[in-house]
Design goal:
With 283 residues, the chain is an alpha/beta fold. The chain folds into 2 domains: 5-173, Rossmann fold; 201-246, no CATH class. The protein has helices at 19-28, 69-73, 91-95, 97-107, 131-141, 156-172, 201-211, 226-242; strands at 5-12, 41-50, 53-62, 81-87, 113-119, 144-147. The protein has a 6-stranded mixed sheet with strand order 2-3-1-4-5-6, with helices on both faces. It is globular. The structure holds guanosine-5'-triphosphate and magnesium ion. Guanosine-5'-triphosphate (GTP) binds next to α1.
């Protein structure tokens, strides 16, 4: 779908604060009660409208666990917005905010809009951090603040959309350079631009052969070979699993066993993952 802008977001904060659940609530309008630890990063997307303009939010949900910190740091780059999340029922997650903020400021664009989120507002009886404390921290550090519940969906839309409004205002004020990759809409042109071709198909094939890669020319514009590129990659991975090359019990390999997995060798469905805005999987 066409859009006027694409805003890249990153969601950060300690493990278990509800980052993946916030994303799932925003993209799929549902709640996942079980903590399914994020490994590395996951991804989701949704279209919103601001000032009559279509804006695509591309959201990177990072792993809160310390072990993944060096991977997740690389995702700050090019982010226009960040949701910094703590859990109102766990004071330690609030105490770690300064460290998160230092990390974010060090690795991101200086104009990045940071929204501070106190999540799990539905668990009032277990509250350890007062709303006023969140407000004070935000004021002190120049952040926008909101308490949310990924369970009841309270303020979830607002958190994502208000961040986009702040970014949009900064664009209007000329603070963001929209010709920079950070906020501008991205256009891909590949082999639909045959007349402007500078690299022969044979050169791509030769490079791939030489380095043991699979090769394909695609057009994200006409959709030519796009399905094939993603699905053929999955087929290669699936074959490697069958051959026992991948250790599927080690999630660090980028493979996770799902609830429908059976060792009985069923074919499984290789087909399209279903359209829609939500790319991905949280929880
Ligand atoms: N009651 C309540 N539970 C929540 C809420 N948000 C998340 N949870 C629960 O908190 C746990 C952790 O949620 P996740 O979204 O997986 O946490 P995360 O921040 O993504 O954790 P990592 O991926 O390890 O960094 C899960 O059991 C969720 O069901 C909320 O708003 N209210
Ligand atoms: Mg997560």
């Amino acid at each position: 779908m066409a859009y006027a802008y694409l805003f890249k977001y990153i969601i950060i904060g300690d493990t278990g604060v509800g980052k993946s659940c916030l994303l799932l609530q925003f993209t799929d309008k549902r709640f996942q009660p079980v903590h399914d630890l994020t490994i590395g990063v996951e991804f989701g997307a949704r279209m919103i409208t601001i000032d009559g303009k279509q804006i695509k939010l591309q959201i990177w949900d990072t792993a809160g666990q310390e072990a993944f910190r060096s991977i997740t740091r690389s995702y700050y780059r090019g982010a226009a917005g960040a949701l910094l999340v703590y859990d109102i029922t766990r004071r330690d997650t609030f105490n770690h905010l300064t460290t998160w903020l230092e990390d974010a400021r060090q690795h991101s664009n200086s104009n990045m809009v940071i929204m501070l989120i106190g999540n799990k507002s539905d668990l009032e009886s277990r509250r350890e951090v007062k709303k006023e404390e969140g407000e004070a921290f935000a004021r002190e550090h120049g952040l926008v603040f909101m308490e949310t519940s990924a369970k009841t969906a309270a303020n979830v839309e607002e958190a994502f959309i208000n961040t986009a409004k702040e970014i949009y205002e900064k664009i209007q004020e000329g603070v963001f350079d929209i010709n920079n990759e950070v906020t501008s809409a991205v256009h891909f042109h590949f082999f639909d631009l045959e007349s402007r071709r500078e690299v022969k198909k044979e050169e791509g094939e030769a490079f791939a052969r030489e380095h043991g890669l699979v090769f394909m020319e695609t057009s994200a514009k006409t959709a030519a070979n796009v399905e094939e590129a993603f699905i053929n990659t999955a087929k290669e991975i699936y074959e490697k699993i069958q051959e026992g090359v991948f250790d599927i019990n080690n999630e660090a390999n980028g493979i996770k066993i799902g609830p429908q997995h059976s060792t009985g060798g069923g074919a499984g469905s290789a087909g399209g993952a279903g359209a829609g805005a939500a790319g991905g999987g949280c929880c």
